[in-house]
Amino acid sequence: MGKTVVSAALAAIVLERREPVRVLKPVQTGAGTDDDAGLVNRLVGADVALTGWRFDLPAAPAVAARLEGARLVPAELCSWVLAHAGTGTAIVETAGGVAVELSEGYDMADLAAGLGVGVVLVCRAGLGTLNHTVLSVEHLRARRADILGLVLSDPGGEPDPSQETNPAELRRLTGLPILGTLGPMPLEDPARFRAEAARALGRALPDGPRIVPPTQN
Questions:
Q1: Hey, which residues does 207 pair with through a beta bridge?
Q2: Catalytic (active site) residue 3
Q3: Which of the residues 3, 22, 25, 124 is marked catalytic?
Q4: SS3 at position 121
Q5: Which of 38, 78, 182, 212 is the least buried, fewest Cβ under 10 Å from its Cβ?
Q6: What pLDDT is stored for residue 155 in this prediction?
């Protein structure tokens, strides 16, 4: 759904306000080919992103850890986030959707609830988003996570008529605000990326320090 791009966009907005920000990726899977922290740093033009545990296998964190002979401990994940959050805004990017497990019986929604932070749910803009988003919101609420709102992510491609009606339907079905819509982003031009981020998501972050974990449905 573009969690890393949304994380970078939110971080760019905070930096533009001349406020401190951290982008924290507690777990990176598929680390042999993906470096989300590196992408964020390149897009925002500053070293603000950190990664905790890294696994080469492109799989759910609990699965990747098990197959690589490791184990993720929820208390250690939370402690790592809090230790690196700093004094400004911390944006915590999950690895997968809200029901993806970090360890057996402990998933991304549990992490958000355990940290006591506000959740920005990244949703696809087009067809299929109603079902996926409603189920994700219900799962987060079942874990008593605080959901700030939704960001719609549109990577481009073939026109999808449902994109015109989806925002209103999502607001009706979830009772949550749409914080912004991020269209295809100029990832090869960081300056343009930052300008587009401010235009699309500037109102997604209120003033003041906070910890916000973008998750995807």
A1: none
A2: no
A3: 25
A4: strand
A5: 38
A6: 76
